[in-house]
Every structure is written in structure tokens, then in C-alpha cells.
Amino acid sequence: MKDLKAASDLFQANKRRLFQKSLAISFIFLTMIAFVVIYILWGDRAIDFFSDPLNVRNLVARHPLASRLL
Questions:
Q1: What does each of the 70 residues of the chain score in pLDDT, given as a tens digit?
Q2: pTM passes above 0.70
Q3: What letter would DSSP give residue 43?
Q4: How far is residue 55 from each of residues 14, 15, 21, 61, measured CA to CA in Å?
Q5: How far apart (Å, rounded) are the C-alpha atoms in residues 52 and 8?
Q6: CA-CA distance, 65 to 39, in Å (whole number)?
Q7: Cα distance between residue 65 and residue 46, in whole Å
Q8: Dihedral angle sign, alpha carbons of residues 61, 64, 68, 69
Q9: 41-48 long-range contacts, Cβ below 8 Å, gap at least 24?
Q10: Which helix (H) or strand (E) holds 35?
Q11: Which residues, other chains included, contact 46 with Cβ-Cβ below 8 Å and sequence gap of 6+?
Q12: In angstroms, rounded to a whole number, what is the distance separating the alpha carbons of residues 53 and 62?
């Protein structure tokens, strides 16, 4: 019975690690897709906007949630 419990614990740990890895890869993939969509929609204007620190500070000051996304 102990072997079954140990195997079950190992399986759960591997399952949890796989979930965390897939979640991290999904987040990175969605972030990359978001930047591609932003570039397609706004082009060089978006790059110019985000490369100016003053614009980014003003954006974060107006929208506090933006600080979590940037």
C-alpha cells in the first residue's frame, strides 16, 4: 500500500509540474501574440510610444492596471 501512495504522490507532483510549465509557456506565447497584434494594429506608432519613458509613466499614472501589464 505504501508503494501505491508513493507512486500516487509522484504522479501528482509530475502533473502539477506539467501544469505549471504549460501555464508559463502559454503566458509567454500569449504575450508574444499580444505584441504582434499591437504592432499590426498600430505599427511604428506603438513602438515610438513605448520607447518614450515619459509616455509610459503617464499611461501608468492614468491607468494603474497598466503597470501590471507592462
A1: 666 777 788 888 899 999 999 999 999 999 999 989 989 999 889 889 889 999 888 988 888 887 776 6
A2: no
A3: T
A4: 44, 43, 34, 10
A5: 53
A6: 21
A7: 18
A8: negative
A9: none
A10: helix 2-42
A11: 38, 39
A12: 14
Pairwise CA distance, residues 51 & 56, whole Å: 8
Contact call for residues 47 and 39 (beta carbons, < 8 A): yes
The amino acid occupying position 11 is F
Name the residue among 38, 32, 33, 37 with its Cα closest to residue 50: 38
Separation of alpha carbons 19 and 13, rounded Å: 10
Q: Using CA atoms, how far apart are residues 6 and 2, in angstroms rounded to an integer?
A: 6
What amino acid occupies position 38? I
Grid-cell match 501589464, residue found = 69
